[in-house]
C-alpha cells in the first residue's frame, strides 16, 4: 500500500507512539482489504463510547493514548446523558465509569457530541470521504448524502481521526457502490417512519451484506433514515439506493437495476406490528430530527404520559429546539440527550418496550434483554398516554 512521506514518518514513530499505533491499524486494515493507498477524510464518528459496551479494558486502552485527532470528530451515543443521568435511573457507579470514558475522549480532542445522527450537526457533502462507525449513520451518509464511508470499528475510526486518513477501499470506491439486489415493495400506504422501519427490517434480512436497490417507494428524509437504520441492524447494509430518490441513482453512470429480485409484500410488513402490553415507550433510534421533535410535541400537546416515555436526541439538536423539548416534557415524557435505547442501561429494567424504529426493534431484545413492540409515533404516544 502506497504511503506518502509523512505517512511513512508517522509509521516509523517520528510523530510519537500513539500516532504510530494508529497508522499501524490503518495499514493493517488496508492490507487486509487490498487498499492501494490512504484517502483524506473530512470527519470521523467514533463508536465504543458507552461504558456498557467497552468496559474496563476499553477504558484502559483509551487512557494509554496521548495524541489528538486531526479532523472534526464526534462520538457515538454514550451510556447516559452527561448532565441528568440520575433522572433516568443510572447508577452512580456506572456514571463514574462513563465519565472516565468521556474524559479520555475529550483529552484526545474529540468533540463531546454523542450521537448516531452527526449529519444533523455539521455539513456532510456529496462525495466527502468519512470514517464513521455507527451503522445507521454510515447508511445515511452513504445512501442519502452520497458521502463515502465504510462501517468502521471503534479503533479504526479513532485511528482515522488521528491520522486524518483512512484506507481507500470498499465504499470509498465508486465501482463498489453499485446495487447488487433489487427489492420491490408492494404498493401500500407508507406514511409513517415506522412503516419504513418495518420495510428496512425485512429488507435487511433479505439483503444481508449486499447493496439493495429499492423500488416502488418514495420516502422522505426521516423515512430514509428509518429505512437505512433498520437494514443496517437486521442485515449488514451500509449503502442502499432508492430508485429516483437517493442521489447516486440519478447519475448517468449508475448501474442497471439488478436482475436478482425479491418482493416484500404488505402482509409481511403488517406482520411486524403486534399488539402486546408494554411498560415503557422509547423513540429516537436513530436520534430524533428537529421535524420529529416538532411532530412529537404536537402529538403530546395537552396530554400526560402514564408510562415511562424516553425521547432520544443529540444534545445539539435538543438545545436548538428547546421550544419543542419543553412541550414534550410538559407531558411528563423525558427528552434524553447523549445516549440511546440500545447502549443505555436505563432500558435494561423494563420487560417490554414499545418503539417506532426498525433498528430498535432489531437490537432491543439482545442489547437490553427485553421484549419489543413496534408502532407508529402516534401509536407510541397513544400507548404512553392511555
Record the SSE blueprint.
Blueprint: H1 5-11, H2 17-33, E1 38-40, E2 43-46, H3 51-63, E3 73-75, H4 92-107, E4 130-132, H5 135-145, H6 154-163, E5 165-167, E6 181-185, H7 193-207, E7 212-215, H8 221-234, E8 241-242, E9 261-264, H9 266-271, E10 280-283, H10 290-300, E11 308-313, H11 315-319, H12 322-330, E12 334-337, E13 352-355, H13 358-368, E14 371-374, H14 377-385
Parallel strand pairs: 2-3, 2-4, 6-7, 6-9, 7-8, 10-11, 10-13, 11-12, 13-14
Antiparallel strand pairs: 1-5
Helix pairs in contact: 2-6, 3-4, 5-8, 7-8, 7-13, 8-13, 10-12
In total, how many beta strands? Answer: 14
CA radius of gyration: 21 Å
Under CATH, the topology of the largest domain is which?
A: Aconitase, domain 3
**How many domain units?**
3
Question: CATH homologous superfamily of the largest domain - what is it?
Answer: Aconitase, domain 3
Order of helices and strands: HHEEHEHEHHEEHEHEEHEHEHHEEHEH
Broad CATH class of the largest domain = Alpha Beta
Largest sheet: 5 strands, parallel
Strand order of the largest sheet: 12-11-10-13-14
CATH A-level architecture of the largest domain: 2-Layer Sandwich
Put simply, the count of helices is: 14
Helix content: 25-40%
Mean pLDDT across all amino acids: 94
Q: What percent of residues are in strands? A: 5-15%
What best-fitting shape do the alpha-carbon axes yield? Answer: globular
